[in-house]
Each structure stands twice: as structure tokens, then as C-alpha cells.
Amino acid sequence: YMDCGSLGDLLQHLGPLPQECIGAVAKQALLALQYLKERHLIHRDLKPQNILLNTRGEVKVSDFGCVAELQDSFGKCGTFVGTVPYMSPERIHGNEYSFASDVWSLGCTLFALSAGFFIVDRAVPTDPRFQRMQQAQAAGESTVRAIFGLYNRPCHLSDSLVRLLDGMFAIDPARRFTTDDVIASEWM
Known about the structure:
By secondary structure, this protein is mainly alpha-helical. Helix content is about 45%, strand content about 10%. The strands form 3 sheets. A 3-stranded antiparallel beta sheet has the order 1-3-4. Strands 2-5 form a two-stranded antiparallel sheet. A hairpin with a 5-residue loop joins strand 3 and strand 4. Helix 2 packs antiparallel against helix 4 (about 100-115) and helix 5 (about 130-140) crosses helix 6. It is globular, with a radius of gyration of 15 Å. The mean pLDDT is about 90.
């Protein structure tokens, strides 16, 4: 039914996608996250390969093998599951995870689709891109623009997408955008 394959397939074959295409996909993926949140579930492995697309532009989130139920909006990682470049810092460190973890993963997905590369290899202090994220956030700078700056590349993303991604990449999960914040963002 999902005859276009995954967003990972598209990214691999086409490279970065136009922002207007990503927006339509992101809205549908976000609605899937909202659906899970309403049921106190977290996906824990959201990435382009787990977001499927058909020729009618319909999106389906797949691979629910890592889904966990949350109590009181947070939970403790019992097992290390997911795909490392899309894991939030708190998940990698085995700390409590929350709905904010899926927001981070969706941000990583949006960044990869629009920029054509991962924002980090691993959200840990030894990763140079994560170090740059920490520095930018401590200085009140844009996380996304700082990452592009590491490569001496101009950031071609719209200001509204940069603001959205910056909110989704708050290292402190208490400061990270919620799914409601993402839905209400100018770019969405």
C-alpha cells in the first residue's frame, strides 16, 4: 500500500528534499506521534526508514517493535533500543525518556531530509557536532546554523524551519519543544 517506500529510500536516492514536500510529510508523522502520545506510548525508533509514503502523499509511521508505554509522561529505559543518530541525549545516556525523545527523533528526521546529512552521529559529548550544539545553545545561538557553520556551508533552510528545529533540538528535554509546540510552529 505504501508504494513509494520509506523516506529513507527517498533521501538515499534523491538527496535533500524541498521544504514544502517535507512539511506535508512532517505534519502527518507528527499526527502519528500525537496519536501515540494520547495513548501514553513512545515510538523510540522514529527515523526516515520508519516513515512510509505512497503516491497519494499519505504517510504511515511503521516499525512499532520498540514502542514503550509511559507512566506519568516519562519512563526509564529498560533496554537500549532505536537508531543511534536519531536518539535524544537522554535516551543515549539511559536516563528517563519522555515524549520529548520522539520530538528529538522527528527533528533529526526533518534535519536529515532537508539538509541531506545527520545533525549528529551520536548525541554524546565526544561527538564534535554535539559539542557544537552544546556550545551554540549555551551562547544562545541557533543550533542548526552552528552545525552548518562547522562545514563552512550556508544554511539554506528557511528561518521558520531553523527556529522549529532549534526548538526540537534543545538538549535539555524540559526545554525541548513539545508535539503541541511543533504543531503550532510557523513552519508547520
